[in-house]
Amino acid sequence: MRPSPPDLPAFAVPKFAVPTFALLAIILVTALPAASTWAQVAGSSRVIPNFPRPAGSPDPALRVEYSNGSESPPMMVRTAPGRLEPLYRRSPDGGYTPARASGYRIAMTSCPSMPSVSGDPRTRMIDLAAAEWAYFGLPVLDLSVEPAAIVPRLAQPGEVIDIIAPRSNASIGDRVLRQAPRLGMMEDDGPVRATIAGYWAATGSEEAMRVQSIVNYGWHEAGWAMPWSAAFISWLACESGWSPQQFHRSGGHYDYVLAAVRARDGSDPAYAYVAYDLAETVPAAGDLLCTARGSSTFSTIADVRNMSSDSLALHCDLVVKTDPKQRRLYGIGGNVNHAVTLTIVATDAEGRPLTDRDIVGANRWFAVLKPRQGGTAAHDLNGTPAVQSLYRNYARYATGTRAPPPLPLPPATSARPKDEPVPVPPKSKNKAKAKSGTTASEK
């Protein structure tokens, strides 16, 4: 049963702190069930609103098919590099039969899945990312405001006492969350399992699905065992119209970032993206912003070129909007808090993201991948069909309930001012540095 719409909440939010689309996200998930679908998690009282993709948007779930029971292939385990062997189980007659587990398999490999796709792939990636963000329920992770752990810390003269161990503080380790995140559906929610499998299908590999079938065999309805953020970026590239020669689709960010570094070096003139160090340029809508993750130590694109890190773990978000005047940047990425999430990033006055060298707990941003074609996206997040639809739906809701009308969306303009140079001259290192914390964008 669909719950009745709650009363529209009152908000006291500083105008400079929350852009129109972010405020719409907060309002819509609490006040607009008529414009959304509702996901009810089995065995739980949690009710999560999510929003249909705009008409004409591809559905990642159509890229996979679900095999159940005897229809499933035998479970395979890796026994050596490049070697897989089937698992067996004892049958009632004392013999052994292949163990089979339900799971997803690739059903569609075409990129894009809709042949009529045309226009600027960079703008289409922004449109697709916004649609998936809405489908996941508009989760937001604000890393831009003053540091505050989910469980507050106790301040004493000259020191700070952790009330609970940092590693137990919402599983964030030493990282400091700026603000409690607004959560949507997560990877273990039924309505998005096939969606994430569809992201994986765009990489052309069933490895993650094979591993997941084994996990689900012992733990039903578990979240995805393998990080899927690179698969999400690969799906965006696939559906936006980039060919395999223009974008290296992969389950690991390192592969397509390395390809962009080689394009910068001139060894791959057909590649769609060119890599820059963060000090060389300012991110714009349609760029990919990348950070080191986990135990990796990448800090420049030269490190990627030379593989000078024991771990190759990276994470990249698609930049969907920048606001240098308010010192904010907005990126959408996969597997951020187990979902497709909008992250709000603090920047300097030029629009360059602040890193863990500047503020405690920030991501270790170091690279920007820019489309080789130059120019700007036709619009940023505000102009996407998903946000425009959310705005119209809320305007109708407000009219029918005599609620305050929404703030007007900015006019649809290009994503970057025409007179803004790209790239800008390198910026000198900040003199004031805060103690850095461990950062992991995923999970």
TrEMBL record:
Record-given protein name: DUF2272 domain-containing protein
Domain DUF2272, first and last residues per copy: 218-370
InterPro entries: DUF2272 (IPR019262)
Highest taxon of the lineage: Bacteria
Region called Disordered, residue ranges: 400-443
